[in-house]
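Subject: Re: docking follow-up (3-isopropylmalic acid)

Dear J.,

Thanks for your patience while I sorted out the input files. As discussed at Tuesday's group meeting, I've set up the holo structure prediction with 3-isopropylmalic acid included as the bound ligand rather than trying to dock it afterwards. The sequence and the ligand SMILES I used are pasted below, so you can double-check that they match what you have on your end before we go further.
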Amino acid sequence: MKTYKIASIPGDGIGKEVVPAAIRVLREVENIHGGLKFEVSEYPWGSEYYLEHQQMMPEDGLGTLKHFDAIFLGAVGNPDIVPDHISLWELLINIRRSFEQVINIRPARTFAGLSSKLANSEDFDFIVVRENSEGEYSEAGGTIHQGGDKVAIQNAIFSRKGTERAMKFAFELAEQRRNKVTSATKSNGIYHTMPFWDEVFKDVSDNFPEVQTEKEHIDALAASFVTRPERFDVIVASNLFGDILTDIGAAIMGSVGIAPAANINMNGKYPSMFEPVHGSAPDIEGKGMANPIGQIWTAKMMLDHFGETEIADQLLTAIESVIRKGIVTQDIGGKATTTEVTDEIIQQLAEVT
Amino acid sequence: MKTYKIASIPGDGIGKEVVPAAIRVLREVENIHGGLKFEVSEYPWGSEYYLEHQQMMPEDGLGTLKHFDAIFLGAVGNPDIVPDHISLWELLINIRRSFEQVINIRPARTFAGLSSKLANSEDFDFIVVRENSEGEYSEAGGTIHQGGDKVAIQNAIFSRKGTERAMKFAFELAEQRRNKVTSATKSNGIYHTMPFWDEVFKDVSDNFPEVQTEKEHIDALAASFVTRPERFDVIVASNLFGDILTDIGAAIMGSVGIAPAANINMNGKYPSMFEPVHGSAPDIEGKGMANPIGQIWTAKMMLDHFGETEIADQLLTAIESVIRKGIVTQDIGGKATTTEVTDEIIQQLAEVT
Ligand SMILES: CC(C)[C@H](C(=O)O)[C@@H](O)C(=O)O
Ligand SMILES: CC(C)[C@H](C(=O)O)[C@@H](O)C(=O)O
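The structure tokens for the complex came back this morning:
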């Protein structure tokens, strides 16, 4: 019996609906696969927790999470309750940084039966490798003066080590795929860090002579996601550019509600975290409208990370078949509720295995 | 006779094809409208000029440009010849900053006969007001260490004055349109400058109680441009976010080749600059494939800026009718060359007036 210890943090908004849905799917995985067990501990941390405790998670929250095999997170943020920069830096970004989850992997692809938001688009299938530990997301900076003279300064900080690491990861991934890496840059406008980014990309690419490379400025690249997504295989991007590109990737798939993500710790010292691309969407909370596919596909990435690739593939097949049958939520053209989609995925999973 | 003195800078790549095309249209405007004259002086500045002179424009380039009523620019950048951060900061960004062109206005809308890149999208019609003088585009920063330890630091700098000015402009524009302003933020990830951005947005919006407001994080907003562009009226964005959003806006319209832009000097001390959203696209230079509509629509914005709104509207009507007839370049589904599209716009202009 292989047991995986999972810390689940539903978080805010629809996180509280889609995480339980995905856990139900994991229970079915246990049913099917006699040799697997998921020990799930749920932590009610998030904006409501903040209201009571003036912090997003307990003082020893990281100490608690540290011992798990993985963290399974829904979504964080509810600006009506806690300012976003506080809620995110205390919880989501805090975990990413403290647990050295330096890479964020985010796939996007077409599915049979799911019309892309794009007109007449060809099939596409790409993965964005997002640098997840530094760059534009930084606490360095501050404000000077007050009132009409106030000036805010933000430092973006790119290290050779962090940049190289993300790029190397992207190239190795491309080698297992279609051998192409696109670098998201903006060296024409962002004067210091982006020419540096280009320089590292050039150096890393020299070690992968078989991999085709290209660089594109983020503005043109964002447009290319809309006009010709089929031309991408692996895209490597900074923290901010990766964030933006993956929401566009999710949108062209059909909805931000279906895109999965994995925050990967690469040195084995801390757990990785699995968290879909979409946000907490407090406006649709409690209506049963939330698309659970993003969170369930994210669970699939967690299974892959555990090395349980066979059942992970079966789970993806189940998702594909439910999408093909059109038993989906409103955001992607269906009428089903969160629970109905989840039930159907569970049933399909039982059938494909 | 009203005479406007225009400095034309075709720049690099397809800039050298679309600027002459748009100037031909301006000549037709003169023909039609007996009382108007455009005195155009062309300056061959750009990456090829750099090869010869080790600079993108002459020492006294700004002094030369200063006396014109407007600058009409194609596109700058050819990374095979000059690194992008040099070519852009010495020419395009240099002009924007030195001439205090603090606002960049960039409309996007659907056209009859032009299918959007989006499936089943409703008609949309929005304008992005891009802060054009500060923010993420900054020379402040640098690198420390060398080799494997190298670290690059980029300062984004937002002043109260610059931020307020862009927002006020957006609200005043919205008052003439559909009374809605969306703020592009990222205060959940960008720790210092974006909460500041939100704070200024809140303050400015208090002065426009009739205008409906919303703020959306840049990732979700970029996705919304793809999934529900019809819900936007005016969007106000920082320099970088505005840059990214307007390429997406251009892409959903059908092609980056048709989107126009205006870099506005607001204090009357220096000329404004008119330059389309698209880049220099050196890969398609000289093939007659470049879409001239972006540059010609940009000329329309220049006419508006001169206060020649009647002929400006007629020019837009001519563009609309050419698009409706499908006499367009390949990027938007036609077979016509740059010259054929331009000829057709000139002919339509003669007909509508
Ligand atoms: C060429 C580049 C520096 C420029 C920018 O980023 O401002 C361009 O993309 C634009 O949008 O005008
Ligand atoms: C919530 C926010 C801080 C976060 C990010 O920007 O990283 C989210 O958008 C994501 O993509 O995981």
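A couple of observations from a first look. The longest helix of chain B spans residues 15-32. The domain at 116-253 of chain B is CATH 3.40.718.10 (Isopropylmalate Dehydrogenase).

Let me know if you'd like me to rerun anything.

Best regards,
T.
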